[in-house]
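Figure 6 in text form: structure in, sequence out.
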């Protein structure tokens, strides 16, 4: 198991067991039950501080990656703004005590209610995505709500090298105002003249899980003439920095990404304050999901299926994007893993696969704890309760202390919306 995929403050106890943030994972399983997400809190804090050092205090954590009140409070304490893409994300960040002026409101289809809430609360920035949204903001301001500071999201016409579902910078996109079509110029002109918007900058986000730093550089170069012409004070390059999920993958650090982006902006003559919105690169590697093995089925000549007590409801990424993950036993982190298995969940779907080609030690047995690393982003946040499986709890560990920040869903929770 490549140890660099584990959270930063992971160690191996004398008996070979995994310890994260000073807490033994087997003890956490006894205390909280499985499955559960465990986050190394200092890892999260370090990444947030790294982002602020790279991009300054305007840098926003993309809360879609993982959000609960503890996480919102944590990134706020470390000096980041928060990118919220819906009224729900805004509500959670506000409930955590994050001041509205530290929020950046996103969304390609913000509703009237969401915009009303954003204006009434006084969010720091709204990233405007369409002409219809401009109409709605103008109507709300005409109705007496305060004028918001806005950035316009521009689609630069750049194909990021990533999965089709998470590319956003190409011309054929539901996001932003297209540069090639002329919509970007028209929108900037309108926002500039509108008395219902205070236009402060341009925003671009080319996609997520992008490894090729050159794609980001290209976006900067493409937008530089626009940014420079208008002389706006802010330029956000969005998020999207890729992270390593499996053996052999390597990613840039936030510091390296920041250095390349800032240099690219300088090279393109951009004098605006450059900011960014990392999500995955803050949260993904900070967490591990821990399951219990319930069933092992050997299909001779075919494969071995290992079923755990979670699945596509706590990590839909393998099903959605064919994403790969590693598997290991927290009781024997550094052990050889000669046995090939397919790790599956407990849902009524053949596609409910967590790891298509996983490797485990030969002595894997029913009742073992089994973990998948790098599950801190787009796991809990994209989870569901398909099959009425209960959503797992989230535990933050630090210096030997474990605190429950999201409790496990209960059967009563499943019934609370039924009328
Ligand atoms: C507008 C915007 N900003 C930031 C992000 C965060 O991206 P990532 O988690 O890849 O850093 C996303 C998601 O891709 C996004 O849509
Ligand atoms: N949910 C995607 C990323 C989408 C980013 C949101 N704009 C993933 O898990 O990779």
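Output sequence:
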């Amino acid at each position: 198991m490549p140890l660099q995929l584990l959270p930063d403050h992971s160690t191996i106890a004398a008996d070979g067991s995994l310890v994260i943030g000073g807490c033994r994972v087997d003890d956490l399983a006894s205390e909280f039950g499985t499955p559960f997400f465990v986050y190394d809190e200092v890892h999260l804090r370090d990444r947030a501080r790294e982002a602020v050092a790279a991009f300054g205090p305007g840098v926003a954590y993309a809360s879609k990656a993982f959000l609960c009140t503890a996480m919102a409070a944590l990134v706020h304490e470390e000096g980041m703004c928060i990118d919220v893409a819906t009224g729900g994300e805004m509500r959670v960040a506000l409930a955590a005590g994050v001041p509205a002026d530290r929020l950046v409101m996103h969304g390609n289809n913000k509703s009237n209610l969401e915009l009303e809430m954003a204006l009434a609360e006084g969010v720091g920035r709204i990233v405007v995505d369409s002409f219809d949204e401009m109409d709605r903001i103008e109507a709300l301001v005409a109705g007496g709500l305060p004028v918001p500071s806005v950035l316009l999201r521009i689609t630069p016409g750049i194909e990021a090298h990533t999965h089709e579902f998470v590319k956003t910078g190409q011309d054929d996109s539901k996001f932003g105002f297209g540069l090639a079509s002329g919509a970007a110029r028209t929108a900037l002109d309108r926002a500039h003249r509108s008395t219902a918007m205070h236009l402060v900058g341009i925003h671009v986000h080319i996609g997520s899980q992008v490894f090729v730093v050159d794609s980001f550089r290209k976006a900067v170069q493409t937008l530089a003439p626009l940014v420079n012409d208008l002389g706006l004070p802010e330029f956000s390059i969005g998020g999207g920095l890729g992270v390593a999920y499996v053996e052999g993958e390597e990613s840039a650090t936030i510091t390296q990404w920041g250095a390349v982006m800032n240099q690219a902006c300088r090279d393109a003559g951009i004098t605006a304050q450059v900011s960014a919105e990392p999500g995955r690169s803050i949260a993904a590697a900070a967490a591990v999901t821990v399951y219990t093995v319930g069933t092992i089925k050997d299909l001779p000549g075919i494969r071995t299926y290992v079923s755990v007590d979670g699945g596509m409801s706590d990590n839909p990424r393998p099903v959605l994007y064919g994403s790969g993950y590693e598997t290991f036993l927290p009781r024997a982190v550094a052990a050889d893993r000669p046995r090939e298995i397919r790790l599956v969940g407990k849902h009524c779907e053949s596609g409910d696969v967590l790891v298509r080609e996983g490797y485990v030690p030969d002595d894997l047995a029913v009742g073992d704890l089994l973990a998948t690393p790098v599950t801190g982003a787009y796991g809990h946040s994209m989870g569901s309760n398909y099959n009425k499986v209960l959503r797992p709890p989230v535990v933050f560990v630090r210096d030997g202390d474990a605190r429950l920040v999201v409790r496990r869903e209960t059967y009563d929770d499943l019934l609370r919306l039924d009328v």
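Caption detail: The first strand starts at residue 10 and ends at 12.
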